[in-house]
Amino acid sequence: MSDQPNFDPVLKELQQKYKSINQDTHTHLEGLLYSKPITYWDYIQTDALLNLQIQRTTLPDEMVFIAYHQINELLFKMILWEISQVAEKENLDVVFFENKIMRVSRYFDMLTTSFNIMREGMEVEQYMKFRNTLTPASGFQSAQYRLIEFASTELINLIDYRFRSTIDRSTPYTHAFEHLYWQAAGKDYETGKKSTLLINFENRYKDEFLRFMESYNTKNLWTRFKELPKEDQKDEDLVKAMRHYDYTVNITWVMAHYNAAKHYIESGSKHVEATGGSEWKKYMHPKYQRRIFFPDLWTQEELENWGTNI
Questions:
Q1: Contact indicator for 97, 238 with CB cutoff of 8 Å
Q2: Burial (0-12, 13-18, 19+ Cβ within 10 Å), 170
Q3: Which of 16, 144, 251, 285 could tie 76 with a disulfide, CB 3.0–4.6 Å?
């Protein structure tokens, strides 16, 4: 009796796997003879990752600022990854939906509490010096965050509150784009003139945004929720998860960001603007734009007092 393990079942499954993609099993198995064992640093690409923090000044706390924002972008990527699974899921059910929403919420919970790193983790004096080297760049220009918004709700809920009555589903995407709430950060609506911050952002991402807006118009989280059977839309756990996500992204996280920005921008003795020159208070505070991903899940009183009781 042999003590050797029987690899026949595994080999059979491998044959089925490679046959299904029209590949030769023997070729792949032979390739394993010459492949190197995987290591943590190769798998995670540690060396590449740790060489992405390139300072523009000699001030030590700039490293905190760079690394922190890069961590945010990685979390944004994870959030988009989870949302895309809901968007593409066939036969979407409550359990799957709630599971993904809570994953996303936990990422945003982490982002919210992490603002203490920004607020308490840098010396104001250092920040007020190295911030000038960032101009005209700004955290406003995070494309992934804008994609998260497009993937979360119907476009009308991202339109500047002043213009929502003039826009509907028949409105061209290019026109709707010009009236997104964050346009207020760098646009004079009377003259149409845009800041360098906004111009650079649009030159880099506008085409991608327009394609993404159209793609997610029928598969964003809010639309997919409303596709569920009526009974499932009343599921207490799912509704609670949706509300938590909505509140966390559009109030808790936004206000943590707002207060961190305020801490530094208003710490000096003289008036200063955000690094990109944006009118950050006009578009960031939730009570002004009332960004709400899932409006039907809130009471009329909650909607009217959105962002005011904080």
A1: yes
A2: exposed
A3: 144
Phi, psi of 180 (to 5 degrees): -65, 150
DSSP for 112-144, written as a single string: HHTHHHHHHSS-HHHHHHHGGGTTT--GGG-HH
pTM for the complete prediction?
0.89
Separation of alpha carbons 264 and 255, rounded Å? 14
d(CA 159, CA 76): 21
Residue 217 CA to residue 168 CA, distance in Å, equals 12
- Report how far residue 286's alpha carbon sits from residue 288's, in angstroms, rounded to the nearest whole number: 5
**Cα separation, 71 vs 58, whole angstroms:** 21
Whether the predicted pLDDT of 309 surpasses 80: no
Q: Give burial (CB, 10 Å; 0-12/13-18/19+) of 205.
A: middle
Length of the chain: 310
Q: Is 88 within 8 Å of 219 (Cβ atoms)?
A: yes
Q: What share of the chain is helix, strand, coil (3-state, %, to 5)?
A: 70, 0, 30
Return d(Cα 270, Cα 281) in angstroms, integer. Answer: 17
Domains of the chain: 56-304 (1.20.58)
Report d(CA 79, CA 74) in Å as an integer. 9
- Range of weakest confidence among 26-35, 71-80, 105-114, 270-279: 270-279
